[in-house]
């Protein structure tokens, strides 16, 4: 349940609410907005104790949260969350995250970063530890890949996004990347989520390809509950009966998440369908539906990419998708 504090309540008042919650063995999570301070009360049968909270003078309102997720819900944090990443952010203006599926070499990343940063892109993606379906497929450069990403990111003033697969890799990712990605296969790896809850870095949480929106938000709840509120959701397509595409892009997830949650949401257009020919038109759809950004795999020579070339744009295709999407972003801002 959610306790909304009265507008001029003090730190002592807040402590009163927290102490009361503790006396019932409930956990608390405080969110201080510009207008209101809200305390999330978490525990078994919390709503049965609502009257004790309502009796406090400093409490304006006690709201039950009937949804299974609380901390990521709109009720808990009515204002939209903006995730700060270095001097950039996700949630305020439409952002592009671009780069190859996998880091293949320093030279390749250098050419990618030069091209993308010249266009004005501030987020560079690249996998160093790759979750491949086949053990025979390219598994990524590992630590070497992370080192390349960090060096190139610093040189081109770009924020690095890369996937972490194992909880024990957290110290490495803390050192080398700016946003830690949780891949679709790991969305329900609760040990990983718990570990990332202790991280100081923002987490980009991809939707499991077989997961409902509720399960996805509950995975976000894990991160928040364990201490990390810097969460960017990423819709990346779900598995359906359709065979012409690798996954089906659930475009409705964007406005739905915006109703249910305060977290920013972006869309990964490469994994969403697995087809590069669909990316330009879907990029426009994603802008129109109100997402906070897109992620697109870009490769200087997709035919020779070590992974996911079929869903990567070449530089020319990316530049044109970027231009038309940004035109639409500007039009939308004027509406
Ligand atoms: C990726 O972004 O490199 C990736 C493997 O994505 P997903 O987890 O969505 O398949
Ligand atoms: Mn990929």
Summarize the structure.
By secondary structure, the protein is α/β, with parallel strands linked by helices.
Tell me the CATH architecture of the largest domain. Answer: Alpha-Beta Barrel
In CATH, the topology of the largest domain is named TIM Barrel
Which outline best applies?
A: elongated
Label the structural class.
alpha/beta
Radius of gyration over all CA atoms, rounded: 21 Å
* Number of separate helices: 11
Proportion of beta-strand residues: 15-25%
Secondary structure elements and their pairing?
Elements: E1 2-5, H1 11-23, E2 27-32, E3 37-42, H2 50-54, E4 59-63, E5 83-85, E6 88-90, E7 95-99, H3 106-119, E8 123-125, H4 143-155, E9 159-163, H5 170-176, E10 179-182, H6 190-197, E11 203-206, H7 213-225, E12 231-235, H8 253-260, E13 265-268, H9 269-273, H10 279-288, E14 293-297, H11 315-334
Parallel strand pairs: 7-8, 7-14, 8-9, 9-10, 10-11, 11-12, 12-13, 13-14
Antiparallel strand pairs: 1-3, 1-4, 2-3, 5-6
Helix pairs in contact: 3-4, 6-7, 10-11
Manganese (II) ion is lined by residues 101, 271, 297, 307-308.
